[in-house]
Amino acid sequence: MRNGAVWGSMAKRGGRTDVALVVSRVNTEAMNLMLAELSQAVGETAHAAVLINGAGWHVTNDLEIPTNITLVPLPPYSPGLNAIERLGRHMRDTLLSYRFENRSS
């Protein structure tokens, strides 16, 4: 895999509903897989609110949203409201940029 993305979710308090998914493409199919994994981690007796931005794969009518998940849209360009965005930026700035070398041929 030449390029990829790491998607993650985390519980605000209690519970063990943290989920991470490494994908080679970010699209509706990958988003549906993430929602299914998160739904399974949340369980049938709980409910998850998932913050989403305006990415095309977040707002398409082709999403398969489990009944125990509610998608909560964020205002345009608001990474400060999304904890996983802050974590991703921190990881890019301090960890990932030093772990992977550019192997372009």
Task: Give a description of the structure.
34% of the residues lie in helices and 19% in strands. With 105 residues, the chain is of the alpha+beta class. It has one domain. A two-stranded antiparallel ribbon has the order 1-2. The protein has a two-stranded parallel ribbon with strand order 3-4. The longest helix is centred in the last third of the chain and has 17 residues, at 83-99.
* SSE class: alpha+beta
Radius of gyration: 15 Å
Which term fits the overall shape? globular
Number of structural domains: 1
Distance between the termini: 14 Å
Low-confidence stretches: none
- Count all strands and give the number: 4
Order of helices and strands: EEHEHEH
- Quaternary state of this entry equals single chain
Count, helices: 3
- Report the portion of residues in β strands: 15-25%
Mean pLDDT: 79
The helix content is: 25-40%
Characterize the main sheet: 2 strands, antiparallel
**Largest sheet, order of strands side by side?**
1-2
